[in-house]
Amino acid sequence: METYRTPYQKPQADTLAGFSLIELMLAMSLGIALSGAILQLLISDSQLGLRVNRMLRERSVQHRTLALIRDEVLIANRISAAPQLEQHACNLAGRLPVLHLTTAAGAITYSVGKAPSGIWRGQVLMRCGPAFSLEGNWSTTTTPQNRVVIDGLSTQPDAWGGCDSLLGLNSQQTAVDLAGSSRYGFSACLETNSGLTGLRLQQQLNSKKNETTIESEKLISNS
């Protein structure tokens, strides 16, 4: 009986071929580029989230500041139409007195200008008046205190032209731009007959790439 052997066949070259060095380097380059793009996207998203959170936090501080001023305006006996001419209980150190209130516990002055120390950002709004007790009421037994209420106010804000519309004045009514404060980061206006008061806060948040302006307004009415 004869035995037949299958002749040895050398494998074709294409069955043993893998990736060439150039192909491997190209694939690696594409992978690195894709990873870098994804990383940049994640960083940008994180920075955007931080900016949004900061804006929300600063706007919340603005609302609390305006709420504090509103409460004191509503219980004041008098709102001065010329705060720059009043006698103030504290040394304002060159800051502009924007709002001066006469209350049962003493005078309260809100002033805007240079910060009292380097720990504060930009211009500041300061309150000179009676201190608060632990219950949140005015303390009449202590000397007036001059404290920063909010910092980061715009040093070159847009001139506030929205007072009349905020107060809803007609053509026969005129609001007083208190101490010319419409050119400052904290602005106040007053309609002397009705007692309507308008407030504006504008902050400037600076970052490495851009600047963001945050602005809030408040209408105060005794009615």
Which descriptors would you attach to this protein?
single chain, 5-stranded antiparallel beta sheet, 3 helices, about 220 residues, elongated, 4-stranded antiparallel beta sheet, alpha+beta
Describe this structure in words.
- It is a single chain.
- The chain has a 5-stranded antiparallel β-sheet, covered by helices on one side. A 4-stranded antiparallel β-sheet has the order 6-7-8-9.
- The chain has helices at residues 13-16, 21-74, 163-167; strands at 78-79, 96-103, 106-114, 123-129, 145-153, 176-177, 186-191, 196-206, 211-220.
- A hairpin with a 4-residue loop joins β8 and β9 (211-220).
- It is elongated, with a radius of gyration of 33 Å.
- The mean pLDDT is 85.
- The chain has one domain.
- The chain has 3 helices and 9 strands, in the order ααβββββαββββ.
- With 223 residues, the chain is an alpha+beta fold.
Write the layout of secondary structure elements.
Elements lengths: L12 H4 L4 H54 L3 E2 L16 E8 L2 E9 L8 E7 L15 E9 L9 H5 L8 E2 L8 E6 L4 E11 L4 E10 L3
Antiparallel strand pairs: 1-2, 2-3, 3-4, 4-5, 6-7, 7-8, 8-9
